[in-house]
Specification:
Shape: elongated
Order of helices and strands: HHHHHHHHHHHHHHHHEEEEHHE
Radius of gyration: 31 Å
Strand order of the largest sheet: 1-2-3-4-5
Oligomer: single chain
Largest sheet: 5 strands, mixed
Protein name: Reverse transcriptase zinc-binding domain-containing protein
Bound molecules: zinc ion
Structural class: mainly alpha
Number of helices: 18
Helix content: 40-55%
């Protein structure tokens, strides 16, 4: 079967070559030593058909994409905004996505673009060289960094386009679909089927009450979430990087709060380092020995007692416990104290890190008392009588005992139980002495990450 578009385009190409032939000859004579080439850009519905032109276009798109990524990475934006800018200014419509369905991209070519992006992120210290690749492309609310990969964008666009062509009424669209189906390579419909099989996606029913574009959008959404689950699964199945997502699944862990830091305004470098540490990809002695297979001492260089792993450095080293862990605990508790004071309209400094908690603070009406590290006088002897913060509300007759701890992710449940039982006696005594009606659980537990 002959294709009317191909035939007409070939005719146009011939026409243009003949038309500008004499001019090309003239130019070659005039600019001796220069290479003079003629490109007939004939973009019909089906776009660039010339292989040569197509390669030129691909190169141009790649260059423009990399230029934009570089420009974004050189800005002063924070880590989250940089990733968002790449996903909204480089990947979508203006650059790469515009060519989907017109230029026959190979998946390997798109993968190279993604690799190049990661290299650029790496050069700008946004991504640790050993950090997890899948995690980079998982949404921030699920613990990832929310970058859009060109490969997924292409696959999603192809599936959406295929669905639209199949279900949208119109004589020309039908002809486009026939032509696409007849193609041996890079056919939209064949590619769409292949991509759907890859993620084991069932055929979704076309809803008659919705337009073709709405149906295509729903399909694209479904495909994207399938791709996301595949990436998450791949991340979880990794022996080392997968330990963190497995912890996130534990029932005692609040995933939303745990991943909240990824939506804050941290610098790209800080964010990259923290993510690498969570992936246990930092160059610790244990990593050098076990993962890299080097002949090195794997014990901690501070205490020489335990294996030097990320977990140990962050929350298990006895030497660091005496200095670094204490100052971390005090800083975190001071921030909490500052936030509580702020909530009750108590006068405080603008910057939390300049806040120096006073032993006892009151709000304007003196019905809220906030105590900082103050022992509670009790009738009977109670050893654990000094939680970090006590918030006493005399109007509502409530009292909150807050004790801060910064354990490793693995120990959160254990620490929570420990704290609750440690302050149980004090809690009962306070209820009796201060006539507290509404008791609150003595607890305040933060994770190390
Ligand atoms: Zn140690």
């Amino acid at each position: 079967m002959s294709c009317p578009w191909i035939e007409s385009r070939a005719k146009k190409d011939e026409e243009k070559t003949l038309k500008y032939g004499p001019m090309m000859w003239e130019l070659k004579q005039r600019y001796n030593g220069y290479r003079v080439e003629q490109y007939n850009v004939i973009i019909g519905v089906l776009g660039g058909y010339s292989k040569h032109l197509e390669n030129k276009m691909k190169e141009k798109i790649r260059k423009e994409y990399n230029r934009r990524v570089r420009l974004i990475l050189r800005t002063e934006l924070n880590g989250r905004n940089k990733i968002e800018a790449i996903s909204s200014l480089a990947v979508p419509v203006p650059v790469v996505q515009y060519s989907f369905g017109i230029i026959a991209w190979k998946i390997s070519e798109l993968k190279k673009i993604d690799t190049k992006t990661r290299k650029l992120l790496n050069m700008h210290k946004m991504l640790h060289p050993k950090a997890d690749v899948e995690r980079l492309y998982i949404p921030r609310k699920d613990g990832g960094r929310g970058l859009i990969d060109v490969e997924t964008a292409f696959k999603t666009a192809t599936i959406g386009l295929d669905h639209y062509l199949k279900h949208k009424e119109g004589q020309y669209l039908k002809q486009v679909l026939d032509h696409e189906r007849s193609k041996a390579k890079n056919s939209i419909s064949k590619n769409a089927t292949k991509f759907k099989i890859e993620v084991t996606m069932p055929e979704i029913e076309n809803r008659e009450d919705k337009s073709a574009s709405e149906n295509a959008k729903a399909l694209k959404h479904e495909f994207k979430s399938k791709m996301k689950s595949m990436k998450e699964e791949k991340w979880k199945n990794k022996a080392l990087h997968g330990q963190y997502p497995k912890i996130l699944e534990k029932p005692h862990l609040d995933t939303v709060t745990t991943n909240k830091w990824l939506s804050s305004n941290l610098k790209g470098e800080t964010e990259g380092l923290l993510v690498a540490a969570q992936n246990q990809a930092i160059n610790t002695r244990n990593y050098q020995k076990v993962i890299c297979g080097q002949q090195v001492e794997s014990k901690c260089r501070m205490c020489s007692q335990h294996e030097e792993t990320v977990d140990h450095i962050v929350s298990g080293c006895e030497v660091l416990a005496k200095t670094e862990y204490i100052s971390r605990h005090n800083n975190a508790a001071a921030y909490l104290h500052w936030s509580i004071c702020k909530d009750h309209d108590i006068e405080i400094t603008d910057k939390w890190y300049e806040h120096e908690p006073e032993t006892v603070m009151h709000n304007k009406d003196s019905n809220i008392t906030i105590m900082w590290g103050m022992p509670v006088n009790t009738d009977r002897t109670i050893t654990a009588n000094r939680p970090d913060i006590i918030v006493k509300d005399s109007v509502n007759s409530t009292c909150k005992l807050i004790d801060m701890t910064v354990p490793s992710d693995r120990n959160i449940a254990l620490k929570e139980t420990e704290k609750k039982s440690k302050y149980k006696d004090l809690d009962l005594e306070i209820q009796r002495l201060w006539h507290i009606k509404n008791r609150s659980d003595p607890c305040g537990c933060w994770c190390a990450w």
